[in-house]
From TrEMBL:
<feature type="transmembrane region" description="Helical">
    <location>
        <begin position="112"/>
        <end position="132"/>
    </location>
</feature>
<keyword id="KW-1133">Transmembrane helix</keyword>
<feature type="transmembrane region" description="Helical">
    <location>
        <begin position="39"/>
        <end position="58"/>
    </location>
</feature>
<dbReference type="Pfam" id="PF09578">
    <property type="entry name" value="Spore_YabQ"/>
</dbReference>
<protein>
    <submittedName>
        <fullName>Spore cortex biosynthesis protein YabQ</fullName>
    </submittedName>
</protein>
<feature type="transmembrane region" description="Helical">
    <location>
        <begin position="6"/>
        <end position="27"/>
    </location>
</feature>
<dbReference type="InterPro" id="IPR019074">
    <property type="entry name" value="YabQ"/>
</dbReference>
<keyword id="KW-0472">Membrane</keyword>
<keyword id="KW-0812">Transmembrane</keyword>
Length: 167
């Protein structure tokens, strides 16, 4: 294997270390130490390993050498020491310029659709209330009677031995 090919594979594996550290940092930042964040991180590690192996497979037909592990560790340390802040800034910039406007537009479209669907629904509810208006007084009377009856039953059985007692 020629030296330039070894240098290319070394840089590729350092790049996978940088990207793995960035992905794990993103997951830990977004997850915030929750159980879901931990579960996502546990699922991400094998996927990152497969991604690193696919890079290794593309660069060197999957031949693994000890300096590949050292190159990945170098990439992780490089990310933590020098690239942490630029990656975070790029993430905030991406969120501010792309993700938030898209989410705003989706919310706006959802609100318009909900409003359009809500108009006939409000009309139907208005008609149902209008049709049920003559029955409101009898329904209130029945509710009042049922409430009075339940209070009477509770008073009558207040000292009942099967009543749940507080400790």
């Amino acid at each position: 294997m020629i030296v330039s090919h070894q240098l290319l594979s070394l840089l590729a594996m350092a790049g996978t270390g940088i990207l793995a550290a960035a992905v794990i940092d993103m997951i830990r930042t977004a997850g915030g130490g929750t159980r879901a964040g931990t579960a996502i991180e546990l699922m991400a590690w094998p996927l990152l390993g497969l991604a690193a192996f696919s890079v290794l497979f593309a660069v060197r037909s999957g031949e693994w050498r000890l300096y590949d592990l050292l190159a990945q560790l170098l990439g992780v340390l490089l990310y933590e020491s020098a690239l942490h802040r630029p990656f975070r800034f790029a993430g905030r910039l991406l969120a501010a310029l792309i993700i938030r406007p898209v989410l705003f537009l989706l919310g706006l479209v959802w609100g318009i659709v909900a409003f359009i669907i809500g108009i006939p629904l409000r009309l139907v509810l208005f008609l149902v209330r209008l049709l049920l208006r003559p029955f409101q007084k009898p329904i209130r009377a029945v509710r009042r009677k049922a409430g009075n009856l339940s209070r009477k039953v509770r008073r009558k059985f207040a000292g009942h031995p099967l009543k749940k007692r507080s400790a």
